[in-house]
Amino acid sequence: MSDFVEGLKRGAKAFKSALGPSRYEAGNIKVICPHCQNDIFDEGSAQLNTAGASLLNLDWLNKSAKILECTKCGLIQWFGKSLEKIN
């Protein structure tokens, strides 16, 4: 039973670290903060709204972008294409 509990603890720790801040590549180039040169970011997403879709309450049809927030200075960078998490 203790092996099972230890396995659950290891799995929870790995899951938590997978969701936390990380390093990224965009277009096979390592992402570095242009302001402070940090290379660790929190990932998020943001919707790219258009006036026409917003007027008709169709914002859910708009594209979204990935954003990275620098964990050191807070600068936000926007990416229209996919990001790759690296170690």
Describe this protein's structure.
By secondary structure, this protein is an alpha+beta fold. The chain has helices spanning 2-19, 51-55; strands at 23-26, 29-30, 41-47, 64-70, 76-79, 84-86. The protein has a three-stranded antiparallel β-sheet with strand order 2-1-6, with no helix packed on it. 7% of the residues are buried. The model has no long low-confidence stretch (mean pLDDT 82).
Helix content: 25-40%
Number of helical runs?
2
The shape is extended
Q: Which regions are unreliable across 5 or more consecutive residues at pLDDT < 50?
A: none
Distance between the ends: 32 Å
Number of strands: 6
Q: Specify the structural class.
A: alpha+beta
Q: Residue-averaged pLDDT, rounded?
A: 82
Which strand order do you get reading across the main beta sheet? 2-1-6
Q: H/E order of the elements?
A: HEEEHEEE
Largest beta-sheet characterization: 3 strands, antiparallel
Rg, alpha carbons: 18 Å
Q: Estimate what percentage of residues fall within beta strands.
A: 25-35%
